[in-house]
Amino acid sequence: MAFRFMPTRPMRLAVAILVLCCATGVRAEEASSPTSRQPAAATPSPSSPGQKGGAGRDPAATPSPAAEQRHLPPDSTTQQTLTLPGRTLNFTATAGSIRIFDDKREPQADIAYTSYQLDGADRASRPVTFLFNGGPGASSAWLQLGAAGPWRLQIGGDGAVSSATPDLLPNAETWLDFTDLVFIDPVGTGYSRFIASGEDVRKRLLSVDGDVSSIALVIRRWLEKYDRLSSPKFVAGESYGGIRGPKIVRNLQTQQGVGVRGLILVSPLLDFRDFSGSSLLKYSYALPSMAAVAREVREARGAPLTRADLADVERYAQGEFLTDLIKGQADTQAATRLADKVAALTGIDQAVSRRLAGRFEVGEFRREFDRRNGRVTGRYDGSVMGFDPYPDSNSAHFGDPSGDSLMAPLTSAAVELTTRKLNWRPDGSYQLLSESVNRSWDFGRGPAESISQLRQILALDPKMKLLVGHGLFDLATPYFASKVLLDQLPAYASPDRVKLVVYPGGHMFYSRDGARQAFRAEVEKVMK
Length: 528
Description:
two-stranded antiparallel ribbon; disordered N terminus; alpha/beta
């Protein structure tokens, strides 16, 4: 599950479960003690100046006793071997944290990370990729354990149930073959936590700009700590990571002095404005995915559905559909024509479509699609069906059969990986998806968007590349929205620099073997 935002209320439509260093000046240092649980030789030595610890420690930066009680344990570095088909990977794994300080050098938060660096590689030429999920309020477990990390949890099929055994398997599709990996958990997610107890720090870091600044700073400090500033650098974000990612790259370019070679976005949301208020575009954006769900579930197919199979729906969604939609219900002929066409594409009862004027909110589609059988579709993957717990209710009272069932196995697997394989044992609970962070999020003066930053980062660096991946059946962040928005970019965002790929699957399309393998190949191309 990557996108942790939920479109249930106007402004938080994206916050279901879809992060200027806090403008005032935030600093980051490696968390309180650089000492590893492993022998010193196993830990790359920090190279950046101004590290806390040892002789010359600045008394102003000494954490208070209360802060010390909340800090994370020293980093743990271990040597790992992964046996995969046709190759064996030897690498250094580190589970640890970097501490954030304010402009008064008071500790604010410990940001946890998990990094994997291939042994024996040339650091100057070896790419390093920083990965995070979205939410806001999601840890990086989905990308790490579902797609790119050395170990993978089965999150599709029999593995996509709450009671599934959280067995970690070697990931044949890990990206570690061609890039080192750093998974970052924003504050309040995973084991990351606030050190300061005041409300000011929470308000600052649980905001669009504060989140971006803190993560960008952590990226820079990790690069300094492990002597990787000369390495080719990439950023990957999922879901709300579509807002977070371009803004972080822009901050790195202009505030942190760190250049980025490429940005990889997985099932991203790029502009909240199109999904809020009275915007009509949300109906156009969602229609191809709704039609894809109908064709996947209701048609007998000998081959996987592809985006090419939806060419007719895409043409309609940005043509006649929009024309009739704009005419409104005042034009009864247009309204009826639209409603009947949508009913035909989605398989939903024509009378229901006419009652809703063909304007299906995602929640309405999910319930009406198979209401006659008392089932609802998933939000993250509309092709996944589940029982409606209250099928006779006038109101909708159901969760997400394609997402909720993953909470238990993913949480257990993340704890197992951190504490047993990587030998890092923070106290407190692991927060896979924090509703507290989600509820507290400050979106600023209006719905967030990152298209502005996409334009800026691509214009600033003509060598930078953008790869966007989506699933056909994703109703949370429909692929067609990204398609339309990317088409609006200026000519310098040429096809050799900007690419959209769409696979059979949902929000976490990488849960399907074919999609995961194909997307990995696309990522590798970006880095070569």
